[in-house]
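Propose amino acids for all 289 sites.
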């Protein structure tokens, strides 16, 4: 409404300016000045229309940008999916846009590039959540924030692990549903002869994914142990106050013990970080099938 008033005011101002110019020209150039001023009216109105259209288009583009950013943020907060870490930023946005109702027709990313978590079976979702929790504990650790861990394991390998686990869980969910449909109705010996090897393969696959998740959890535990050692080292900074306390009480044995324990803790930190890095390096990048 405010913009409409502004444009109306601008139109009146243009007309008033042209009229004033016409009166001035009439006073100096006579009738020809009036005619010249009248010719300026359509030119001024055309300029106004063009300017109005330019500003309107700019406002529409800005409004669309704000709306799209709000919709994408809503998708990120409400839709649980795992995306291929190899996606470009544009491809990742295309996945997000595919969950926006008004954009679904124009955004059709391949389902091979993301896994929708609610479509997984409950046991599969539980396994994925365990893997995500382990990875998040690594990302939020002090040793990670201080860049004491192997950057490759954290920035490249861990997202790839989550992606491959999610892919395998989706395949397993599909095959489990297929097995459940095959078991409906009368189950014969011939049917079981076909299904039992398939079920065994499925069980082995589930066990393999579970082992991968346990590997991530083992890595996370190593990182937490390194964090504990780091906190212990930071606490060593307070030892000076305790040395002063023991010195005032002439406790030489206590001073010696305090210094010995401090050196041991420094060794513990170095060993814990080293073991955490080694645990990360043992995580394998196996292709998902």
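Proposal:
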């Amino acid at each position: 409404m405010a913009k409409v008033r502004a444009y109306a005011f601008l139109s009146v101002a243009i007309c008033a300016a042209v009229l004033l110019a016409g009166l001035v020209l009439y006073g100096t150039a006579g009738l020809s000045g009036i005619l010249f001023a009248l010719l300026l009216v359509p030119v001024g109105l055309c300029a106004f229309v063009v300017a109005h259209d330019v500003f309107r288009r700019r406002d529409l583009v800005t409004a669309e940008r704000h709306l799209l950013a709000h919709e994408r943020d809503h998708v990120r907060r409400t839709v649980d999916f795992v995306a291929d870490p190899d996606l470009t930023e544009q491809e990742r946005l295309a996945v997000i846009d595919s969950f926006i109702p008004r954009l679904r027709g124009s955004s059709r990313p391949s389902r091979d590039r993301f896994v929708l978590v609610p479509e997984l079976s409950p046991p599969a979702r539980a396994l994925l959540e365990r893997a995500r929790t382990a990875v998040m504990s690594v990302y939020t650790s002090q040793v990670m924030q201080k860049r004491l861990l192997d950057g490759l394991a954290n920035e490249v390998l861990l997202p790839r692990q989550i992606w491959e686990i999610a892919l395998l869980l989706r395949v397993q969910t599909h095959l489990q549903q297929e097995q459940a449909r095959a078991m409906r109705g009368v189950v014969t010996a011939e049917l079981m002869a076909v299904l039992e090897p398939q079920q065994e393969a499925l069980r082995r696959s589930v066990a393999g994914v579970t082992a991968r998740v346990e590997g991530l959890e083992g890595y996370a535990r190593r990182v937490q142990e390194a964090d504990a050692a780091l906190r212990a080292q930071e606490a060593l900074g307070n030892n000076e106050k305790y040395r002063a306390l023991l010195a005032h009480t002439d406790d030489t044995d206590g001073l010696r013990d305090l210094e010995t324990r401090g050196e041991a803790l420094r060794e513990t930190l170095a060993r814990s970080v080293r073991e955490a890095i080694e645990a990360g390096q043992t995580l394998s990048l196996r292709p998902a099938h």
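The longest helix spans residues 31-78. The beta strands are 81-83, 114-116.
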